[in-house]
Specification:
mainly alpha, Globin-like, about 0% strand, globular, binds protoporphyrin IX containing FE
Length: about 190
Amino acid sequence: MDAHKIDLVQQSFEKVAALGLKAAELFYSELFAIDPSLRAMFKGSMQEQHKKLLSALALVVRSLHTPEKIVGAVEKLAVKHLDYGVKPEHYTYVGNALLRTLKKGLGSEFTPELSDAWVDAFRMLAHIMKKAAYGSAQAGIRGASLSMRSWCPGAESNHRHRDFQSRALPTELPGRRPASSRRGGERGAL
Ligand code: HEM
């Protein structure tokens, strides 16, 4: 990701984080709307989970300029998610729930440019986590793109795929979602 995109993500995250736990509540309601079966995975207190998610996201977002400092922790977190029963496709649902949360939280400030910057940031995070948990084959190298050069050396050679992916997905991350949650007009390719 270039420095400008990182700045956009960081500034917008601070605005959404200012909503406090409401932002996390909104995120989980979007996530469970996308796939209601995911609710059963969360066995602990949802309030605690809201706090944990917000602080993990805050750490990731605030480290976008110095990702090397947190890659190890992010990889460990990903492996821990295997025990929760998390599957590779769930990262797409989580990414889309995040985008919907940002859209609702920021309203008209959630511009296409900002959306694009968040898609880059989330793809980068999801790539690292999926690679750590499931190996390269499931990590979505194509979707990861040029943007993750600093996080994942070698990924730049895949940049030519990005335009195709971006054109196909103007607002949301690609992914197959349960038919019941697909909304009219949304694309669910991948
Ligand atoms: C994409 C980035 C993600 C981040 C930053 C993240 C962050 C976290 C954190 C910080 C925890 C708490 C871990 C602990 O207690 O030590 C957690 C737990 C959990 N996460 Fe994630 N997560 C991510 C992706 C996902 C995905 C894709 C799913 C699938 C639905 C998921 C489902 C869960 C579940 C089920 C738990 C355990 C909740 C419980 O104990 O009740 N997470 N996550």
